[in-house]
Amino acid sequence: MALASAVAEQGTDRLRALGIVALNGMFDEMDAEGVLREAVTDLLPGRMAMVSSFGADSAVLLHLVSLVDPDLPVYFIDTGKHFAQTLDYVETLKARLGLSSVRAVRPDAGDLARFDPDGTLWQSDPDSCCHIRKTEPLEKLLEGFGGWVTGRKRFQTSERGVLPHFELTADDRIKVNPLAHFSHDDIEAYKQRHGLPEHPLYNDGYKSIGCAPCTSAVGEGEDFRAGRWRGRKKSECGIHFDFNGSIAKPVSQSQLTLFKDGRFLADPWRDRAEGEAPDETRYAHVTLSDFLADRAAFLASPHPIGLRIEPGDRVEDIGADVERFASIAINFPAFTDGRGYSSARLLRERMGFTGELRAVGDILTDQIPFLRRCGIDAMVVNNAPTRAALEKGALAEVSRYYQPVGARREIPVGTRPFLRRPEDVRAESLSPHSTLT
Ligand code: SF4
User: Which of the residues 17, 153, 209, 368 has the least number of beta carbons within 10 Å of its own beta carbon?
Assistant: First the structure.
């Protein structure tokens, strides 16, 4: 397949350019083995991994992996809360299918000690428990891969009813779901046809199997996943959520509004909803006043949170908590309001903030060099001319500044010492192909 070979050469950027919808069209007619083979050998060779729960249906996809590439890295997220039978089943399937690269991924010991010292977080806050035991370890391991293979199927829940074979996630990875179109009967037939061993708990009514404290058997006529987090408003563990908490969807180019690292990306962050509980807030920017009002609760939450700074906010009030934030968004509501620049400089130069510092609001092209100069390394762009300029790399170049900043090397020019120019103006220019730092 010539197109797929071209994709392989150019990685996920090429996939994005092709469009995930087109990609799904290309593979629509293919069976599960064909989808998996193309993904592993043609689309992202050497850059794919599989993540398996070694649960009730896992043997089917693992069997397909054994046919396509038995050396494909297969990761089992060992939360420390699995049934002993699941741990046995890992060994059974490894041996039966000849999989050479099955590896366990474990939660960070520091996170466990800090957030779940007595191992009961699943009871009081299952979202956070899943976050530190599953999502965080998975995100770390995926840093080394361009995509991953999952065993999700459309029939499993209503949220998964439209599951495509290929998804593009907000962090620019490809998720491949070779079994998306499988029905429950297809799974059963496949297991029988190939004599695959059942999970030891399957015949006791465990039709979907996760961690022991959060899994129960299902009764006749119940949804197969009804035994997961039974009685709670939770149906997914989080590893299949996109960063902002919704099921990953294909993203069109126009929806990519975050400009960072020289290109437009899907924005994993959102503004925190009014009244949202601090322990439910994740990948959201919290206003300074909300943070200060509920500081202890936000600090205790294991989720990544951001901060939103409005003109007139005193950023110094965050103090030593500044490194709690993975992203700080500074609002620039009007071109003439320069207070955001001061906030940015305070954060970078005086408070030593090293995380993402983004500009939000009505960002105009002419502001960009000034934003960058104050340490802003990302921006949400909704203004069409600004977007077009960034896409073309056609940005205004500013060679004279009226106020010095501490973080950049500048040379006073002319007779007025406060009028400065960057040490190398050319190096300051920004294009979509250079890094915004
Ligand atoms: S499934 Fe339950 S025990 Fe497992 S990580 Fe999630 S909340 Fe914790």
Answer: 17
Residue range(s) defining the domain that contains residue 354: 253-428
Q: Does the Cβ of 133 fall within 6 Å of ligand 1?
A: yes
Question: Which tokens is 308 given?
Answer: 């939103």
Q: How far, in Å, are 21, 39, 383 from residue 166 at the CA level? A: 8, 9, 31
- Show the tokens assigned to 206: 């465990």
Dist CA 260 CA 10 (whole Å): 20
Q: How many domains does the chain have?
A: 2
Report whether residue 86 contacts ligand 1, using a CB cutoff of 6 Å: no
Task: Say yes or no to pLDDT of 265 above 60.
Answer: yes
Residues 164 and 303 in one domain: no
Whether 321 shows a pLDDT value over 50: the answer reads yes
Over the stretch 165-178, which tens digit does the pLDDT of each residue have?
Answer: 887 776 667 889 99
Which ligand 1 atom is nearest residue 126's CA?
Answer: 7
Block residue for tokens 């990544």: 304
What percentage of the chain has pLDDT greater than the value 90?
37
Give the three-state DSSP class for 333: coil
Helix (H, G, I), strand (E, B) or coil at 360: strand
Same domain, 258 and 203: no
Alpha helices in 283-383 (DSSP H): 288-293, 295-300, 339-345, 368-373
